[in-house]
Write a structure and sequence with these properties.
Layout (H helix, E strand, L loop, with lengths): L5 H24 L4 H16 L13 H11 L3 E2 L2 E2 L3 H22 L6 H23 L9 H6 L3 H30 L3 H33 L3 H34 L1 H4 L7 H15 L5 H11 L22 H16 L5 H9 L9 H18 L5 H11 L7 H12 L16
Antiparallel strand pairs: 1-2
Helix pairs in contact: 1-4, 1-5, 1-7, 2-3, 2-4, 3-4, 3-5, 3-8, 3-9, 4-5, 5-7, 7-8, 8-9, 11-12, 11-15, 11-17, 12-14, 12-15, 13-14, 15-16
């Protein structure tokens, strides 16, 4: 079932209403405990400023800001004194600090995505609504509070905070998956799995830091904020370096894949088009995470076996070759890929892209169908080219192309994916 765009409107509308209510209530009543609010607000601002160097596609570009916001939502005491800031002030301070920390990025044209802000608003509200009433239940003039009465202030209290943070993280993962699903209509299950998988990395560090800051501030006061945020900053730096290495690795593979274009064996942009369309089809068919990475790398390098040919294939269109010749090129390509240091699964997909589809892994079926589609649209360079190409793929579903893959490709194209075009191949003889 596809969620309509109204799902995005509903999520954004809820975040906007909550923000307006929080800001209005805080302005009307004034700040409770302004020193604490200022300290946590500065922590969120610093976290947002630390987004410099964030790479495209990072699930949480400002982990320190997220951890500071969650810590403020879960702050029940400061240096042994019960806090009274409440849910609405928590949200108002977090929103104001997030926007303040985003000003330099917005000025540079790299402001945070609206989805990021909306998720921050809703997850912080969720955490505060779960914690603040629970902590305040049974509060008496003598200073006792409901949560401390039930669990004490030892390990069980810390576990309670961690459980609340886990629930908050799950809420955030569901929100992120819903927003992407509503826009792209990719299957919800794989999107949610990707989000949950991301929680095991930087997400777990954010949750742990938020809990530690809240617990540390309850005992040591506001001095706990700079002390306990340092490990997360170091984790963020390490994660950025790791992500930069991964990006460079992908760029290296893309450059290697272009060798066939530079040598005049394949049309310009062919590998990139096949990779982008294969990834979209993989999403449509439920692939996620590492499976999509393998699929993308294999699609980029699927034609590299042509470098071993003495005579180039006309227009680089391997889909028109006899089956034996297609297999030979695929095996040559797999042998080259195995020498590049990429995962062996990528070489397997490249090697098996020319096999009958019933004998192929799903990634190889996708690469074969999308590659054939790109080849066929080049042959049918008319307004009806994409339709003619799809029809010819459907005619080959008895042996060459899996019907489900072809229909998934048709759905992806019907949603507005650009139809592959052809450019003259530089240096092509004949």
């Amino acid at each position: 079932m596809a969620w309509p765009p109204s799902a995005v409107v509903a999520v954004y509308g809820a975040a906007a209403l909550l923000t307006a209510a929080a800001l209005a209530a805080t302005l009307w009543r004034g700040l409770a405990e302004p020193r604490i609010a200022l300290a946590f607000g500065l922590l969120v601002v610093v976290g947002e400023l630390a987004r410099w160097g964030a790479l495209p596609g990072e699930r949480e570009p400002a982990p320190l800001g997220a951890a500071g916001a969650l810590a403020y939502a879960l702050l029940g005491e400061n240096a042994g004194q019960r806090t009274t800031h409440g849910v609405l002030q928590t949200l108002a301070v977090v929103v104001a600090a997030t926007l303040a920390g985003s000003v330099p990025h917005i000025a540079k044209g790299r402001g945070p995505a609206l989805d990021h802000l909306v998720r921050r608003v809703l997850t912080v509200t969720f955490a505060a609504v779960c914690f603040q009433p629970l902590y305040s239940t049974g509060y008496k003039a003598g200073g006792a509070d409901g949560l401390a009465e039930r669990f004490g202030k030892g390990p069980f209290y810390a576990v309670t905070l961690l459980l609340l943070l886990v629930l908050t993280a799950l809420c955030d993962a569901v929100l992120a998956a819903v927003l992407v699903r509503a826009r792209t209509r990719h299957p919800f299950g794989p999107l949610l799995r990707d989000e949950l998988r991301a929680l095991l990395h930087i997400g777990s560090a954010v949750c742990a830091t938020g809990a530690v800051i809240a617990l540390g501030a309850a005992v040591a006061g506001l001095w706990a904020l700079p002390v306990f945020c340092v490990p997360l900053l170091l984790t963020q730096l390490s994660y950025r370096r790791y992500a930069a290495v991964r990006t460079t690795y992908r760029q290296t593979i893309a450059s290697l894949a272009r060798a066939t274009e530079i040598a005049g064996y394949t049309p310009h942009g062919h590998a990139r088009r096949v990779a982008e369309l294969s990834r979209a089809v993989g999403r449509e068919l439920g692939l996620s995470g590492p499976e999509l990475t393998v699929l993308e790398y294999a699609a980029l390098m699927h034609d590299i076996g042509q470098l071993s040919l003495v005579d180039p294939v006309p227009e680089g269109a391997t889909a028109f070759l006899p089956a034996d010749e297609q297999r030979r090129i695929a095996l040559l390509g797999g042998a080259v890929v195995r020498q590049t240091g990429v995962p062996a699964a990528v070489a397997v997909v490249v090697e098996r892209q020319a096999d009958p589809y019933r004998e192929q892994p799903l990634s190889a079926r996708i690469v074969r169908a999308v590659n054939a589609y790109d080849d066929l649209t080049g042959e049918c360079a008319t307004a009806s080219g994409p339709l003619s190409a799809l029809e010819r793929l459907r005619l080959g579903t008895g042996h060459d192309y899996q019907p489900e893959v072809v229909e998934s490709l048709a759905r992806v194209l019907s949603r507005g994916a650009p139809a592959p075009g052809r450019a003259p191949v530089p240096g092509r003889a004949g």
